[in-house]
Amino acid sequence: MARYTEAKCKLCRREGMKLFLKGERCYGSNCAIERRPYGPGMHGRRRGRKPSDYKLQLREKQKVRSVYGVLERQFRLYFAEASRQKGATGENLFNLLEKRLDNVVYRLGFAPSRSAARQLVRHKHVKVEGEICDIPSRQMRIGQTISIRDKSHNIPLILESLRTNAKRERLPFVEADEKNREGRLLAEPQLVDLPIPIQENLIVELYSKV
Predict the structure, then answer these.
(1) CATH code for the structural domain at 100-188
(2) Is the pLDDT score of 168 beyond 80?
(3) Phi and psi based region of residue 23 (left: phi greater than 0; alpha: psi -120 to 50; beta: remaining)
(4) pTM
(5) Is 108 helix (H, G, I), strand (E, B) or coil?
(6) Are the C-beta atoms of 57 and 203 separated by less than 8 Å?
(7) What SS3 state is found at 142?
(8) How far is Cα 121 from Cα 126, in angstroms, rounded to an integer?
C-alpha cells in the first residue's frame, strides 16, 4: 500500500502549525515547529508575497491530507463520495475521514498517532464488534465497539499511548474504556469538535474547479 515515507515534521513546518503526526514528541520541546518555526528547505525563512486564492485552497487540502494520512487519489474518492451524499459536502468529507477505523483507534487513545493506529490495525491487533479487522479505511458506524485484541493489551506502544492520552483533547463523539481497551463511536463527528482548525470551504472550492 502506498504511503508517505518522508519526514513528518516537514509537513507541520510547511503548514506553519502542529498537525500532531508524531504522538508524544508533538507535545514536548523536541517538536520541530517549536525549534524551527518556519518552512522547510532553503527558502523556508523567506517572507513570501500574499498567497493567491488557489494557494490557500491547495495548502488547506494538503494539510488535511497530511493530518489523516491519505494520498491524493484516495482523498479524491472521499470527496466524490461526500459530494454524492445529502448535506454540505465539506462536512460530509470530514465525517468520512473521521470515521475511518485507524482514526477512531487514534481518537480513542489506543495509539499515539494515526500512522501508529494504522499499523495496529494492519497487524491485526484491533477488533470491530469482536471480529479482527485489518482494514484501516473501514468506515465505522455509530454504536460499533472497537477494541484491542486480548493478547495485545500490553503492547508498549498502546501502554505508552494510554499513559500520555491525558494531553489530548477529549472529543465528544467517542467514548473510551481504557481499562478494557475498548471504545465506541457515539455520534457523527462534527467539524467544530476537531482540535485542528480546518476550512473545509477552501477544499470544496478547490475541487469545484476541476
Answers:
(1) 3.10.290.10
(2) no
(3) left
(4) 0.80
(5) coil
(6) yes
(7) coil
(8) 5
